[in-house]
Amino acid sequence: MTQLVSERGREQEATAEFRRAVGGDAASFAAFLARFEGRIARIVRSLVPASDAEDVFQEICLRLLAKGHTFDPARPLEPWLDAVTRQVCAADARKRKRLSRAGGADALDDVAAREPSDADPWVRDVVRDVIAGARGEEREAMRLVLAHGLTQREAAKRLGVPPGTVASWLAKAVRAVRARLRGTRSGE
User: What's the rounded mean pLDDT across residues 141-158?
Assistant: First the structure.
């Protein structure tokens, strides 16, 4: 019985600490991380390659702070924490899968580092112009999907808009790039 009371007390203390951290108390967040770092790290190590573990751990920290308001303090903290950790790990796995289908992160680095062909700067300039001409949220959606590898759904969630809106913005950008490339090629 004493052990049950002790466990409830620790759970209540951890919950209070987390709520203070979400409220902006850096010391509480540091204490929260000290308490749960091992738990989070075990899950990350089991789901993510070692080379990505630190980045994923940092993303988990950001997600905890960003989504902390969704935690229901009437429920246990650890299952919620585990779920957030697994969601971030799953998002990382999806990102790695997309990169591998596109030739992998190494291939992207190779493209960025190689000597560009005559067409590359031209296409890159067209894409930059289209992105620069987009409105704030549209431009941010393009940045999240193209530069950071988020899915359209993830970008929509981050921007607080429906996924269809992000899909529409990206389709509009693709049409604009194609039109500019066709127009330039035909001498316009």
Answer: 82
Cα separation, 183 vs 181, whole angstroms:
5
pTM above 0.85, yes or no: no
Name the CATH topology of 2-101: Rna Polymerase Sigma Factor; Chain: A (1.10.1740)
Going by C-beta distance under 8 Å and a sequence separation of 6 or more, which residues neighbour residue 6?
none
Q: How many CB atoms lie within 10 A of CB 40?
A: 21
- Looking at residue 100, its pLDDT comes to 64
Select, from the ranges 35-39, 110-114, 145-149, the one with the highest average predicted confidence (pLDDT). Answer: 35-39
* Residues 116-185, CATH architecture: Orthogonal Bundle (1.10)
Q: Mean pLDDT in the chain?
A: 78
Interaxial angle between packed helices 26-47 and 50-67, expressed in degrees from 0 to 180 and rounded to the nearest 10: 140
The whole-number average pLDDT for the span 81-97 is: 89
Q: Tell me how far apart the terminal alpha carbons of the chain are, to the nearest angstrom.
A: 81
Domain with CATH 1.10.1740.10 in the chain: 2-101
**CATH 1.10.10.10 in the chain, residues?**
116-185
